[in-house]
Amino acid sequence: MLLQPLHEPAADRAGVQLLLLRDDLNHPELPGNKWRKLTYNLREAQRLGHSTLLTFGGAYSNHLAAVAAAGRLTGLQTVGVVRGEELRNQPLNSTLARARQDGMRLHFLDRATYRRKHQPEVLAALLQELGPAYVLPEGGSNALALPGCAELVPELLTLTDFDTLCVACGTGGTLAGLLVGLGGQREALGIAALKGADFLRTDINALTQQAAGRVYSNWTLRTDYHGGGYARLTPELRRFVQAFQQRHGVLLDPIYTSKMLMGILDLLAQGHFRRGSTVVAIHTGGLQAWAGFGGV
Fold first, then answer.
1. Catalytic: 61?
2. What are the structural domains, with CATH classification, of the chain?
3. Is residue 166 a contact partner of residue 283, using CB atoms and an 8 Å limit?
4. Measured distance CA(119)–CA(167) in Å, rounded
5. 103 in the Ramachandran plot: left (φ > 0), alpha (ψ -120 to 50) or beta?
6. Where along the chain is the active site annotated (predicted)?
7. Cα separations (Å) of 47 from 129, 134, 210, 229, 251?
8. Which of 24, 67, 105, 183 has the most other CB atoms within 10 Å of its CB?
9. Out of 51, 61, 94, 258, which one is annotated catalytic?
10. What is the spatial distance between Cα 145 and Cα 171, in angstroms, rounded to a whole number?
11. Chain segment 207-238, per-residue pLDDT in tens
């Protein structure tokens, strides 16, 4: 686990120590939060005797790529239900092509049905068509995803004490796991990567209630740094990523961590964090997504 100081003018002016936790380096093939969210789910799938994992995602989903890689590494078969039936007859993008290379069977679903994927009748029809499988939700966020993410907190505390732990949010599972790991101590800040993400507050509370039997109050969610919506890469955000890499030698992903760091620097400029405090931002990986944007 590598903890990298970020010497940023906004942090210096605010009197805040800003650190970047390089969780993107935690696994050679499943870096970042994906391995953490999958670990206990993989154990449960094998305990229940499943030979196949079935999960959901969009065309550039880090989660689909991670599940496909996990299947290859563990010997489990994988099925990816992809949002957008129109993609069926198009050339595969880099994410889906890599997933298929890793052995994932791709099943394209029209967008209207995809929105109802969690309804029992829709899921039952998919399993009847595609065969029995251990079902992972989109983004991998369920109660079993939380223990793996929670383990990050004691690992981090062996390196440094801190006041606020920051993470980007897609489905909210990683933040929910961090809250379990924090156990009500210190603060957590989630920065949503998608537009209209107010619903995540309810989802995160439901996950922690399910996994730990309680709802936590030591966290906030910012929904104003989505940059136009999920997987939207504005010219401003691209320039930010390029400049950040030049300053710190670290490449951020275009969907999650880049938006989080841009948000943190803006919040530092606004005086959001207490002077004298230590803020740790988590790099959760996801660099494979750059192929879908034509590179940095």
1. yes
2. 3-30+143-293 (3.40.50.1100), 51-132 (3.40.50.1100)
3. no
4. 29
5. left
6. 61
7. 24, 11, 20, 38, 37
8. 67
9. 61
10. 11
11. 999 999 999 999 999 999 999 988 889 999 99
